[in-house]
Amino acid sequence: MNKYEFRAAASLAAVCSVRLLGLFMIYPVFSAYARDLSGATEYKIGLALGIYGLSQGLLQIPFGVLSDKIGRKIMIVLGLVIFGFGSVVAALSNSIEGMIIGRVLQGSGAVGSVILALVADLTSEENRTKAMAIVGITIGSSFMIALVAGPFIASIAGVPGIFWLMAGFALLGIGITLSIVPSPRRLSLHRDAETVPAMLGSVLKNKELLRLDFGVFALHAMLTASFLVVPQLLHETLNVTSHRQWLVYLPVLLVSIAVMVPAIIAAEKYRRMKVVLVGAVGALAVSQIMLVLSSRDVYVVLAAITIFFAGFNIMEASLPSLITKTAPPDAKGTAAGVYSSSQFLGIFAGGAAGGWVHQNAGNAGVFVLSAGLALLWLATVVTMARPSYLTTCLIRISDAQAAKAESVADKLRQVPGVADTIVIAEEKLAYLKIDSKSCDVRKIKAFIDAG
Asked: 434 in helix, strand or coil?
């Protein structure tokens, strides 16, 4: 990756990070704060926490499509303006209804898909995977940092202070976009990074992809529902206010990371993906069952939360990789777009359903809801096909090769280690699914050039 590509990936990862940091910071402290808002009920608190996921999930794909027509940077700036405005509305709100409006506006700045499309515009096919990995790692790191930083910042500036910080982050993101992020020479459709509307039908009919979409839906529904009750539970069992609960989340996350790293190595390097998936989803289910049966025991609560985050981090790291492995070579971007929308819709469902259940059945009802989701997810994982260990790679072809696209595709399918190939003549690209252990991309390029 050259300096230009690294600058593009790092700066766009920063834009993504400053936006997500604020959104995640609010999770550990929101429910306790929202109870003091005018008109608050447990259902409305859950709705306010999760509703940004509804607008985010519905607008991800439209934002990406619009960015193809009017420009990536324009849509990123517009999205950050909307996000910042929503943050100000939330910061100033004294009622739960005002908070819900602010959260809807925050989610309406759905720039995630646009950021990924711009990463693709600014990087070569050879380095795009590395660039996307930088963005992905940043997203994961933002979540973990935010869970610890949120309660700490709330103890200094209050929850409204976090929303004002989000507005400041939006301005920072706009500044980075306009001054540091390079401008693409041209906008292109990247099937490996963008949603192609014409391919949505085929992706939504793919049963294995739908299993993964349900998985990320369930994962984030459980996370959002849990944060409606866990802060209160920690306060009751440990006598720790929500503003000091970073002292709990920090060691819990460190332990969960220590569990996650060897699990991911076993899944990827030693090709034990399904075993790891079943184990992680099983851990999520066990953690919720533990909280149903003994949520008043401090040791059970701490153990359950640690087990939950261990399973959560394993799945959060594994599911995007599985989308790449499972999707057809030319539908990776579309599959990722549906996956991302499923994640945000899960946030909404977890908040709304979790709030309703909390209001009518208390803490135990929320844990039963999450346990039910985890067990249903476990059933889909146990019965899923053994995941492939194929990766997607892109190879640019010449005009002459594009003119005989089918012939080139047929030849590429005969290369050892190449499982599938689709050549898009108008894009002058070959999309391949390969086994990286038995197939060298450099040899494929040499094969194409020689042919």
From this structure: strand
CA 245, CA 28: separation in Å to the nearest integer? 8
- Are 385 and 440 contained in the same domain? no
Task: Write down which residue in 389, 404, 420 finishes a domain.
Answer: 389
CA 137 to chain centroid, in Å, comes to 11
Query: Domain check: are 144 and 252 in the same one?
Result: no
The amino acid sitting at 132 is M
The domain of 288 spans 205-389
CB 34, CB 40: distance < 8 Å: yes
- Among candidate residues 396, 415, 420, the one with its CA nearest the CA of residue 332: 420
Concatenating the DSSP letter of every residue in 299-355 gives: HHHHHHHHHHHHHHHHHHHHHHHHHHHHS-TT-HHHHHHHHHHHHHHHHHHHHHHHH
- Tell whether 196 is covered by a domain: no
* Same-domain pairing of 263 and 404: no
Same domain, 236 and 156: no
CA dihedral 276, 263, 14, 4 (to 10 degrees): -100
User: Could you list the pLDDT tens digit for every one of the 451 residues in the chain?
Assistant: 788 889 999 999 999 998 888 889 999 999 999 999 999 999 999 999 999 999 999 998 899 889 888 889 999 999 999 999 999 999 999 999 999 999 999 999 999 889 988 888 888 777 777 888 888 888 888 888 999 999 999 999 999 999 999 999 999 999 999 999 998 877 666 677 778 888 899 899 999 999 999 999 999 999 999 999 999 999 999 998 888 999 999 999 999 999 999 998 888 888 888 999 999 999 999 999 999 998 788 999 999 999 999 999 999 988 888 888 888 878 888 888 999 999 999 999 999 999 999 999 999 999 999 999 999 999 999 998 888 777 777 788 888 787 888 888 888 887 777 888 888 888 788 888 887 776 666 767 776 666 5
Instruction: Decide if 326 contacts 388 (C-beta within 8 A).
Output: yes
Cα dist. 42→32, 179, 361 in Å?
Answer: 10, 43, 11
E strand or H helix at 251: helix 246-268
Q: Which two tokens stand for residue 255?
A: 């332990």
User: 135 and 9, same structural domain?
Assistant: yes
